[in-house]
Amino acid sequence: MDLREVAPSPQQAAHRPDARWAALERGQPLAGCSRWWREAPPLAGETLGAVGHFDAVPGGAEGARALLDHACAQLAARGATLAVGPMDGNTWRSYRLVSDAGSEPPFFLEPWTPLEWNAHFAAAGFAPLATYHSSLSPDLTHVDERVAAAAERLKAGGIRLRGLEPARFVEELSRIHELSLESFSRNYLFTPIARDEFVAQYRAVERYVDPRLTLVGERDGELGGFAFALPDLLQAQRGAPPDTVVVKTVAVRAGRKYAGLGAWLTAEVHARAAEAGFKRAVHALMHDANNSANISRRYATTLRRYTLYARRLR
Fold first, then answer.
1. Which of 1, 71, 101, 125 is the most exposed, fewest CB within 10 Å of its CB?
2. Is the pLDDT of residue 295 over 80?
C-alpha cells in the first residue's frame, strides 16, 4: 500500500485544506482525505485538527485505517491535541457520518455517506464526539397551541413574517449572513464564515428557492430570524412528485423580544407548505442538544442519525 500526498480537486481546494493524501494499492485509490490544522474550529481546552473530504471505496478498510492513522500523526506533529472528522474544515461545510440510516431515502442537500465509513473511523481509534439527527413531520396541518400563543405575542410586539424576495436575493443573504453569525455563535464547534463563501453556498441553490417556503421575520427593519426551506427535489429524481419540504436552517436573533420566533417560523413554513400541496417536512441535520431540536420534537420523529468522531492525539 502507498500513502501519497495528492492535489485536491478545485472544489476541495476552495475549502483551503492544508494537505490532501490518498491511500493507493497498485496505483488504484482505496481512500482519501484532507487535513486542516491552520483553520480548524475551536474547542475549549483543545487544539483541534480536522479530517475531511473523506472517501473510501467499498472494501477499502485497510487503506482507510492507514490513511486516518497517517492524518492523525500529521495533525499531532503540528500541535493538534484532538482530531475531529469527518469535517471539511468547519461546520459550515459537509461534516458527520450517517450512523443510522433509518428507512427513508436521502433528502435534498443531505450529505449521504456509506454506513461502513463509521467502522473505518472506529478502527482508527475515533470515538463519537457529537451526535445529530434529522426528523420527519408527517402532518403539516398540526397546530401547536403554544406556538399560536407565541405568534400572537410576537405580532403584538411588531414582528412580521414575509417570504424571501428573489429579486433581492444577494441583499437578503447579506442580512441573513450577519444574523447567522450571531445566532450560531453559541453552536458547538462554531467558526465564523466569510460573507462571500456564505453567499456562494446559498447561491448554489438559488434556482430552487420558493419564497413561500423561505421566510424572514422582521421588527422595525431589523432581521430577527429566518427559516430556509426547499422542496425535496430528490423525490422528483426518483420519479415521484415532491410532497416533502426540507427545512434546512432556522436561526433567530438572541433576546427576549424574539423568544418563540423560531417555533413560529417553523410552524409558518409548515402551514404555507401545506397550502402549496406538500404533505411532509424534514427538519434537517440538527445537533441533538440544539434548540432547533426542541422545536422539531413538537411535530416530528427521528428519521436519521449522524455522528461526528474524534481521536485523542495527546
1. 1
2. no
Burial class (CB in 10 A: 0-12, 13-18, 19+), 156: exposed
| Alpha carbon distance 99, 305 (integer Å) | 6
Q: Reply yes or no on whether the pLDDT at 35 is more than 80.
A: yes
Range of the domain at 53: 2-132+308-312
Residue 172, domain CATH: 3.40.630.30
pLDDT of residue 216: 98
Residue 300 has pLDDT above 90, yes or no: no
Residues 136 and 104: beta-carbon distance below 8 Å = yes
278: Cβ–Cβ under 8 A, 6 or more apart, which residues?
A: 140, 231, 242, 243, 244, 245
Q: What's the CA gap between 32 and 36, in Å, rounded?
A: 14
What distance in Å separates the CA atoms of residue 308 and residue 313, rounded to the nearest whole number? 16
Mean pLDDT computed over 263-280: 96
Is-above-0.85 flag for pTM? Answer: yes
Closest CA to 98 of 70, 75, 117: 117
- Lookup result for grid cell 455517506: 113
